[in-house]
Design goal:
By secondary structure, this protein is mainly alpha-helical. The protein has a domain of about 100 residues. It contains 3 helices and no strands.
Length: about 160
């Protein structure tokens, strides 16, 4: 039995070597695709982080701009307030001048034609010693009128 032993063993080895090469190549492809996925995931993470940082930076800048606007508006309003306060002071002084005694006297003399009293125009009156008012006793009428008056007083007391 002279069988070529080398041939029988070579074929499976070549097949095994080819299978190992395919497995090795497949593993290399898997590793490369995993590396690509990691690389792509890292790129996506970097882009997302850049967008987040840009958004936060933009929000901070917007906040500073709004704060600056509010400060300038505050300054403008304070200057307007000081102008209005000074105008109020001048108007109050003008009002005090208009309501002064000399202005009132001048207005009464020129516009209304009034004059100050002189001593000859003053009249003095004498008042009796009794200065308290006294009620007048009036005749209340007959009994029926008094009863009706009392009844009306009672109803008024009750609020009817």
């Amino acid at each position: 039995m002279a069988v070529n032993v080398d041939l029988a063993y070579e074929y499976p080895e070549k097949v095994l070597i080819g299978e190992h090469e395919e497995e090795y190549a497949e593993r290399i492809r898997e590793i490369r695709s995993a590396n690509k996925r990691r690389k792509n995931a890292a790129i996506v993470k970097i882009i997302v982080m850049a967008v987040i940082v840009f958004t936060l930076f933009s929000a901070m800048i917007y906040g500073r701009v709004e704060l600056s606007k509010l400060y300038s508006e505050n300054t403008t309003l304070r200057s307007e307030l000081s102008v209005i306060k000074s105008e109020n002071v001048s108007l109050e002084s003008e009002l005090a001048q208009q309501a002064g005694l000399t202005k009132v006297e001048e207005y009464a003399e020129t516009r209304l034609g009034l004059q100050k009293l002189n001593k000859s125009q003053i009249e003095y009156i004498e008042i009796e010693e009794q200065t308290a008012a006294e009620p007048v006793n009036s005749d209340e009428g007959n009994i029926f009128v008094r009863i009706t008056a009392k009844w009306n007083d009672f109803l008024e007391y009750l609020g009817l």
